[in-house]
Amino acid sequence: QVQLVESGGGLVQAGGSLRLSCAASGRTFSTYTMGWFRQAPGKEREFVAAISWADGNTAYADSVKGRFTISRDNAKNTVYLQMNSLKSEDTAVYYCAARRSTVISLGDSWYDYWGQGTQVTVSS
Fold it and tell me: Which residues, other chains included, contact 9 with Cβ-Cβ below 8 Å and sequence gap of 6+?
């Protein structure tokens, strides 16, 4: 049973930083891709960033490039999303997801497992 547990969300002022964590369990994730998605009120869920666990390849949405960094800690089976220079438009529920493939996908329908989400609120 794959479990993804996010943590690290909260309230932060615009220009501030937060680091989200996603603790993964229940599988060996070396052949998985891990992604972060977000959903703001009244909007569809959107891709934020992804990392291939095997080789560390990454991908980012244009809206977060240069501000967000995705990384992984193999020993802890944990994926991180470092978010800097936060803006009010980054306010959303952030979800961690796992895809049973080493190929990064930007579409949420390609991900097989999801966490429960963590709220990020950026005040302006």
Answer: 18, 20, 94, 118, 119, 120
- Cα 92 to the center of its chain, rounded Å: 12
47-104 per-position pLDDT tens digit: 999 999 999 999 999 999 999 999 999 899 999 999 999 999 999 999 999 999 999 9
Q: What angle do CA 91, 92, 93 make, to 5 degrees?
A: 145
**pLDDT value at 28 more than 90:** no
Locate 35 and state its tokens: 């992604």
Contact 106, 52 (CB under 8 A): no
Radius of gyration of the chain (CA): 13
The secondary structure of 22-64 as a DSSP string is: EEEESS-GGG-EEEEEEE-TTS--EEEEEEETTT--EEE-TTT
Nearest to 21 by CA among 94, 104, 107: 94
